[in-house]
Every structure is written in C-alpha cells, then in structure tokens.
# Entry
Amino acid sequence: MTLSKLPLALWVATALAAPLQAADDSKPRLVMKADKAREQAQKTEAEQLEKARAAASETSSREADVLKRQQQGEWEDSQREKAAAQFDERETREQKYLREAKEAAKKERKIPKP
# Structure
C-alpha cells in the first residue's frame, strides 16, 4: 500500500469499525433484555406452577369429599327415606279411597219417586 492510500484505508477501516463498535455496545443491552425476559419467563412459569398445584389440591380435596359422602351413603339413605315416605303416602291415600268406597257402598240409595 502506498502512503497516499494509507489514510483512505484507515478511514475505511474506522468507518467499518464504527458500526461494529455500536453493535458491541448494543450486545450488553440485548443480553440484559434477554436476561430480563428469562427472569420474567421463570417468574411466570413459577406462578403458573403454583396455580396448578393449588388447583390440583382443590380438586383432590373435592374428590375426597365426594368419596367420603359416597362411603357414608347419605344421598342413598335420603333417597330411600324419600321413597319410603312416598310409598306410605300412596298407601294411606289408597286406604282412604277404599274406605270411602266401602262407606258409599253401605249407604242405601234413595231414589226420589216422581
């Protein structure tokens, strides 16, 4: 290289190096942004995991309550009692109708003569 071209070469080198240096300056900013994004993602994941654990424990407690009720048979017992009460009510109603029919049959009917 000749001396006359040396300043031009230096100028070109500095012109090309300036954007590289600016890119080097932006790398720490990008790294910081990436770190913040990673931290945010970890925080979000931890929150979602905690919510999932809470929902799972809530679900398991509801399942335990249902199993407990099924084992105790409260619902079945109440249904049996209700059915027995309806049967008794129906039977007493039938007895009432039969009694009224017998009483009506015992009565003499007087047909008025014209």
Q: What stands out?
A: The mean pLDDT is 81. Helices lie at 6-72, 74-106. DSSP finds two helices and no strands in the chain.
